Amino acid sequence: MVQIVVKSFSYHFRIILLLAYFCLTKGFFEKEHNRGDVCFCQLMGQVGDCSCSVDTVDHFNNVKVYPRMASLITKEYFRFYKVNLKKDCPFWSDNSRCAMRYCSVEHCLDDAPPVIKSYSSRKHGEDMSVKYLEQYIPGECDTDLDPELGYLNTTISAATMEEFALWQAFDDALDTYCFLPEEDGEAEYVDLLLNPERYTGYRGNSAQRIWHSIYKENCFRPEHSFDYYIQSSKLNGMCLEKRVFYRVISGLHTSINIHLSAKYLLSDIGMMNGGGKWGPNIDEFYRRFSPETTNGEGPEWIRNLYFVYLLEMRALAKAAPYLEQEEYFTGRHDDDSDTKDAVNNLLYVIKSFPEHFNESTMFSGGAQAAKLKEEFSLHFRNISAIMDCVGCDKCKLWGKLQIQGLGTALKILFSGKFDHPSPAPYSLAHLGKKQFQLERNEIVALFNAFGRLSTSIYELEKFRQLMR
Fold it and tell me: What is the similarity comment for this entry (predicted)?
């Protein structure tokens, strides 16, 4: 009799445990489902200032663009980026490197600091470096940077270094539209595949200062707007050009935050030997984009990612007649031919997209439009110079690359050089030498920057599935 009672109690106890487990897991999954709905349910309809919808971009990117892009950027022509990471911050005294003993590298991009200061002085009667120094207290030192995560791998074989000289000789034989400051003697090649963009632990005063300067000092803002960002409800009160500027910067910021959330350090076991476990961090993604933690703006920031994606994709489509004729020279004939075929295949797909961003609606008019275009360019140059103030070299590498890629896209869209390409058959004699030519580094940055945006949209779908 006692044995029967014990068995009955044991049976009912197990039933109770199962019911409790079901209730707990049901609540957990409902919570996760609700979190997914919160982050993504508002992400529907049109992108904004574009005619296509978010769903259209999702399908087109994830099915057609991303697989091609992910393969293309691993090819040798696109994996090496020439960059100078040794420049000092031109706007404020920055000591954020003090905690990063493994984080030393080389830089890229602009002759922006001296050019911008002299340009600003001529046009506006002020030195931008002084303007920035007045905004912050110099001498701060962030101590929350992780030296291991920020380590930049500069390993490049001797054979590859010899090939770079051949690449440079090939480029020097071509007429160029402009000379980039990468030729300043301190720039070095970095292997992007050895330095993937992912979470580095870079945060605190230094990181906040970068984005504060970009948003507060260089984005066009409506009157009486004092927030760190511009509320989406106030964007429609700005003209198209100013809205576009803010949305491309916001979209780039969103893309970077998605990369950091998707490639988060989940375990540091084996980090000293090149190990560690990287993967999606749902809590981090939710913190960065949930309406609850972003004053309702998170979904709109994600929408801006789609906007800058469409803008850069339009630049690729517009420059396609030139890019289809580029040699993509590395000295390996078969590889170069495969790279060219892969680029042309990607461009063919991109040109098939039916609802591209329409840049012709911008900067149309007289003197006022010309002045706005000049301000647009100056603001973006300042942002490119701010990249020299990033305290983590790996973050600086990808920041400079993506800013240069976006700047190249804006040049293609608004310089006027690609508005009236020569009639077919296209050739470098017609397109490149006499009209407009992108340097190798600009092409590398353009494709890699678009690849980052494509990857972000692809990662969004993965987060959507994980959170539901």
Answer: Belongs to the EROs family.
Query: Residue 280 burial by CB count (10 A; 0-12/13-18/19+): exposed, middle or buried?
Result: middle
Catalytic residues: 392, 395
Query: Dihedral of CA 178/183/187/188: which sign?
Result: positive
Bond from prior residue into 425 cis (ω within 30 degrees of 0): yes
pLDDT digits (tens, 9 = 90+) for 134-180: 333 333 334 455 666 666 776 666 666 666 566 555 554 443 333 35
How much is the pTM? Answer: 0.76
Residue 9, domain member (yes or no): no
12 is a domain residue: no
Binding-site residue numbers are 198, 200, 211, 250, 253, 288
Under DSSP, the state recorded for 170 is: H
Report the candidate in 401, 467, 411 with the shortest Cα–Cα distance to residue 189. Answer: 401
For 20-176, list the strands marked E by DSSP.
Answer: 80-83
Span 102-124, pLDDT tens digits: 333 333 333 323 322 332 333 33
CA 376 remoteness from chain centre: 19
Quote the domain boundaries for residue 263.
Answer: 36-126+158-167+174-418+435-467
